[in-house]
Amino acid sequence: MLCADMLEVSWKDTTGHNGQATALLEDISPSGACLQLETAIPLASEIRWTSPKQEFSGHVRYCVYREIGYFVGVEFASAIRWSSKRFKPQHMLNLQTLVAHGKK
What pTM did the predictor assign? Predict the structure, then answer.
């Protein structure tokens, strides 16, 4: 799901250093998410954020700089699964639905 929502994230890198920043949620799936930040987050860092009905945690799998900031891929911890019933980003677009409507 492509989406947009502002999040406050915190992380701990593999050396034990902590960080915190505001992120833009770019997309989300049951097993992970992509965040956009103004700062890089080291690979394998533990990262977390909360919503009113669910806490998210996982590990950074990629962090790449593109023209407008750092895009950080997060793989959720094994016990975490995203569901739109428990957390619905402020703006959300299901590409499968969009493609299906375009074929009509």
Answer: 0.82
Q: Which amino acid is at 27?
A: D
3-state class (DSSP) for residue 99: helix
pLDDT tens digits, one per residue of 70-104: 999 999 999 999 887 777 776 555 555 545 655 65
3-state helix, strand, coil in the chain (%, to 5): 10, 55, 40
Q: Cα separation of 96 and 91, whole Å?
A: 16
* Superfamily grouping for domain 2-102: predicted glycosyltransferase like domains (2.40.10.220)
